[in-house]
C-alpha cells in the first residue's frame, strides 16, 4: 500500500497544504489547488491502494481544514482502496517536564 504522510507543523493554510501535498503525493502538473480537483485526482488518477495520513494537526487546523477532512472521509467511505487518518500534535505534559529536572 502506498502511504503519503502530510506533516501539519509547517502548514498554515490551504496554499501550504497543497504545496506539501503536490510534493509528497506526486500530483499531476495540471492539478488545481481546490477540493474538487483533489477529489477527482484521488478517485481517478492516483495509484491505489492509497493511505493518506495527516500528522501533527492542531485543534485550530481541524476547524480550518474541516471541509477537507469531511471530503476525504467521504472518499474513504466510497472507495475501499483509499484510507485516511489524521492525528493531533502531541503536547508534553508540563508536570512531566518538571519531574524530569
- The run of helices and strands is EHHEHHEH
Amino-to-carboxy terminus distance: 43 Å
SS-based class: alpha/beta
Number of domains: 1
Helix share bin: 40-55%
> Which fold does the CATH topology refer to?
Barnase, Chain D
CATH superfamily name?
Answer: Barstar-like
| DSSP, total strands | 3
Radius of gyration: 16 Å
Low-confidence stretches: none
User: Would you state the CATH class?
Assistant: Alpha Beta
Give the assembly state of these chains.
single chain
What composes the largest sheet? 3 strands, parallel
Name given to the CATH architecture: 2-Layer Sandwich
Beta-strand residue fraction: 15-25%
How large is the count of helical segments? Answer: 5
What is the residue-mean pLDDT, rounded to a whole number? 91
For the biggest β-sheet, the strand order reads 1-2-3
InterPro entries: Barstar, Barstar-like_sf
Protein name: Barnase inhibitor
Domain Barstar (barnase inhibitor): 1-87
Family: Belongs to the barstar family.
Index terms:
101 residues; alpha/beta; Barnase, Chain D; three-stranded parallel beta sheet; globular
Amino acid at each position: 500500500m502506498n502511504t503519503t504522510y502530510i506533516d501539519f507543523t509547517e502548514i498554515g493554510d490551504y496554499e501550504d497544504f497543497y504545496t506539501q501535498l503536490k510534493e509528497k503525493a506526486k500530483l499531476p502538473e495540471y492539478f488545481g489547488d481546490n477540493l474538487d480537483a483533489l477529489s477527482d485526482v484521488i478517485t481517478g488518477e492516483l495509484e491505489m491502494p492509497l493511505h493518506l495520513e495527516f500528522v501533527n494537526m492542531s485543534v485550530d487546523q481541524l476547524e480550518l481544514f474541516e471541509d477537507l477532512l469531511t471530503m476525504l472521509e467521504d472518499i474513504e467511505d466510497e472507495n475501499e482502496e483509499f484510507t485516511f487518518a489524521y492525528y493531533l500534535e502531541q503536547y508534553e505534559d508540563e508536570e512531566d517536564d518538571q519531574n524530569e529536572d
